[in-house]
Design a protein that fits this description.
Mean pLDDT: 88
Number of domains: 1
Strand content: 5-15%
Oligomer: single chain
Number of helices: 9
Number of strands: 10
Shape: globular
Order of helices and strands: EEEHHHEHEHEHEHEEHEH
Structural class: alpha/beta
Bound molecules: iron/sulfur cluster
Largest sheet: 8 strands, mixed
Radius of gyration: 18 Å
Length: 288
């Protein structure tokens, strides 16, 4: 299903795979895991997982493929900004290369949209790119496919170096939930998103961590997007940091003029992205 999203920095989510495995502290309270075990458990359990052990079959958050969803982007006539796999991680080891390839074939071909591919496994993304260079004319990931990795604390800052090895026109970091102060090399990084954790077990974000990241972005000339403070509810603390909202995105000339989505409008006007009503089942905070 193609779905509108509540996520402030995107328009819609697209989940050709679902399910994942927790890999680092940022996964501790994964929304995708929670939703898979609650609202989406019946839907996901109807489909066999990739690895069909009895435990995996019984686990709604095991990695599952949804080939029928590969046609969704082509069915969306109006260009939009699409977060790929809000309920999974495209580069999870159980997603076969052949299926990752099919997802990229769709993204390369249906180029009226902008795709945001966020992973906690950027080293596999690099290996995938090297093995499948025929997919990418000119040896580069085209500008409408943004490649990102999550960096929630300094322990996983090494992911930035892996991401930088991808020859993408737009490389971005999601520092959410921000769990500690970060000191990052932002060379070759075109966008940074920061935000605090939300939910009943949220871990509070310190203002100094967010300001430190904002300041590093300013020094490096990297657009900075402050998503939320977090709290028991995602909007509990609002979005004001140092007296204003921070809605910067990768420079507007990377977004085709015909992308008339709210997010693209925000780029053009440097204004806040219009909020969308929550009407869809997989519209969740960013997971991977
Ligand atoms: S979807 Fe993302 S946050 Fe959730 S377990 Fe996988 S990598 Fe971690």
């Amino acid at each position: 299903m193609g779905q509108k999203s509540k996520i402030e920095w995107t328009d819609a989510t697209w989940n050709p795979t679902t399910g994942c495995t927790k890999v680092s502290a940022g996964c501790d309270h994964c929304y995708a895991h929670k939703l898979a075990h609650e609202r989406l458990a019946v839907l996901y359990s109807r489909r066999l997982p990739v690895i069909q052990t009895p435990e995996n079959v019984a686990d709604p958050f095991s990695v599952r493929l949804w080939p029928g969803r590969l046609a969704q982007p082509a069915s969306w006539r109006k260009p939009r900004i699409v977060f790929v796999n809000s309920m999974s991680d495209l580069f999870h080891i159980e997603v076969p290369d052949v299926f990752v390839r099919q997802v990229f074939e769709v993204m390369v071909k249906v180029d009226r949209h902008i795709y945001q591919v966020l992973t906690k496994r950027p080293s596999r993304a690099v290996r995938f790119f090297r093995r499948n260079q025929d997919l990418f004319p000119g040896g580069r990931i085209p500008g409408h496919i943004w490649m990102g990795t999550s960096v929630e604390n300094q322990d996983v800052a090494y992911r930035v170096a892996h991401l930088r090895r991808l020859p993408a026109e737009v490389r971005f970091l999601s520092c959410e939930p921000l769990l500690g102060p970060l000191r990052l090399d932002l060379g070759g990084i075109h966008w940074v998103i920061a935000g605090g954790e939300s939910g009943s077990e949220f871990r509070p974000m310190e203002e100094a961590w967010a300001l430190g990241l904002r300041d590093q972005c300013r020094t490096a000339g990297t657009p900075f997007f402050f998503k939320q403070w977090g709290g028991r509810r995602s909007r509990a603390g609002g979005r004001i940091l140092d007296g204003r909202t921070w809605d910067e995105m990768p420079v507007a000339n990377r977004i085709p003029e015909n992308v008339a989505s709210p997010a693209a409008t925000a780029v053009a006007e440097e204004s806040r992205i219009r909020q969308r009503p929550a009407r869809v089942r997989e519209a969740v905070p960013a997971a991977a």
